[in-house]
TrEMBL record:
Keywords: Hydrolase, Signal. It comes from Pseudomonas kermanshahensis. This is Polysaccharide deacetylase family protein. The keyword Hydrolase applies. Its EC number is 3.-.-.-. InterPro entries: Glyco_hydro/deAcase_b/a-brl, NODB_dom, Polysacc_deacetylase_ArnD. One of its GO terms (molecular function) is hydrolase activity. Residues 1-18 form the signal peptide. It is an enzyme of class 3 (hydrolase). The lineage of its organism: Bacteria, Pseudomonadati, Pseudomonadota, Gammaproteobacteria, Pseudomonadales. The keyword Signal applies. Residues 179-292 form the NodB homology domain. Gene3D superfamilies: Glycoside hydrolase/deacetylase. Pfam families: Polysacc_deac_1.
Length: 378
């Protein structure tokens, strides 16, 4: 009995260690200013960049064992963790440089930082002198960035055995880093939903807002919609939008022996039914794909389209909390590809909240056709 109890305790411990971090969001009402001008967007952006940089700096002080424990893993790929950290620092430095351009209009969170080394130094002491106006935001922001960083480092620690969106596997893969400052692309996955459901109301809403989104569809769900209605109904559903593929089923394409057939079938379905909406992009479910798949992707004239801002609207976060998470990451990265789930109920209210709260912030929304047909390096 004791042996069985000990074994059960061990298995429970392993399960806990294997579990990902709880989903993270940040209540934007804790930030004391509205983002109603480009300059105020930059103020909030500089603050989030410095807050995350502090957390990233703190993580570098952990030894291997402490980091593994924090991430809930027994073993970590330290080389990949360091590479991901280096890329994060590079993006932070690029973003902070962009956000400094409005310092003459509002000097909040403007420090004499002229190099990445100086950004690291500033990050180490950040939060010591931000002033009482921002006091209520400091600690919740720190906590959010700790959890968000853990999400990223945990995925890095599992590479290359478990691929994800935190690392490009070839130069044909895209993740939003190629966008211009303040530009964001709306993308949606896992659809289409049933006729008359959330996908329908979302695409109708986007058209009313004169916005374009890229919908990465599953071949089997698209087939179900086609069988239940007509091709014309499908074309009306996605009118004015873009449609890429996620494969025939929502499952990892990393170990699936039929992954090539999955892409071929779903690509053929979309090209036949939605030729005007089709874009040659593949969004791998869970971000998992094969490292040796580049030649096949090229033969199909497909590019892997990753994301760098995850709404996590499929989990426990409310629609508003999901939108607040997205906005915080938009401020942090200043550009990127946003991922929602169009067949679930939270995507549309989250997008509505996001548009209301960024309407005067000076950001822009990337056109899906221009992005979808752009060659890597353009």
């Amino acid at each position: 009995m004791r042996i069985a109890s000990a074994l059960l305790a061990t298995l429970l411990s392993l399960a806990v260690q294997a579990a990902p971090s709880p989903q993270a969001s940040l209540d934007r009402s804790l930030w004391p200013e509205q983002l109603d001008s480009p300059a105020l967007f930059d103020v909030a952006s500089r603050a989030e960049i410095l807050s995350f940089a502090q957390v990233l700096h703190e993580s570098e002080l952990l030894d291997d064992g402490a980091l593994a424990g924090r991430l809930g893993l027994r073993q970590i790929n330290l080389q990949k963790v360091r590479l991901v950290r280096a890329r994060l620092w590079q993006r932070l430095w690029q973003g902070y440089q962009q956000a400094q351009r409005s310092c003459e209009q509002d000097a909040s969170f403007c420090y004499p930082v002229t190099s990445m080394a100086e950004l690291r130094t500033q990050a180490a002491t950040f939060a010591a002198d931000v002033g009482t106006f921002y006091t209520g935001w400091i600690e919740p922001s720190h906590q959010f960035h700790v959890r968000y960083l853990d999400e990223q480092l945990r995925k890095a620690a599992l590479l290359p055995n478990t691929s994800s969106e935190v690392e490009r596997l070839s130069n044909r893969e895209r993740n939003g880093d190629e966008l211009n400052d303040r530009m964001f692309l709306l993308t949606f996955v896992g659809g289409p939903g049933p006729d008359g459901g959330y996908t329908d109301t979302l695409t109708h809403y986007l058209r009313r807002q004169k916005l374009e989104g890229t919908f990465f569809v599953l071949g089997n769900r698209l087939q179900q919609r086609r069988d239940a209605a007509t091709v014309q109904a499908l074309r009306q559903l996605y009118r004015g939008q873009c449609v890429g593929i996620q494969g025939w089923e929502y499952r990892s394409h990393a170990q699936w022996q039929g992954w090539q057939d999955s892409l071929r079938r779903s690509q053929a379905r979309v090209q036949a039914d939605l030729p005007a909406q089709y874009v040659p992009l593949f969004r791998p479910p869970y971000g998992q794909r094969r490292a040796d798949g580049e030649a096949f992707m090229a033969s199909q004239q497909l590019q892997v389209s990753l994301w760098d801002i995850d709404a996590q609207d499929e989990g426990v976060l409310s629609a508003e909390a999901s939108a607040q998470r997205v906005l915080t990451l938009m401020l942090l990265w200043r550009k990127g590809v946003i991922q929602f789930h169009d067949s679930l109920p939270k995507a549309q209210p989250a997008v509505e909240w996001l548009l209301r709260n960024t309407a005067q912030s000076g950001i822009g929304w990337e056109g899906c056709h221009a992005y979808g047909h752009r060659e890597q390096g353009d």
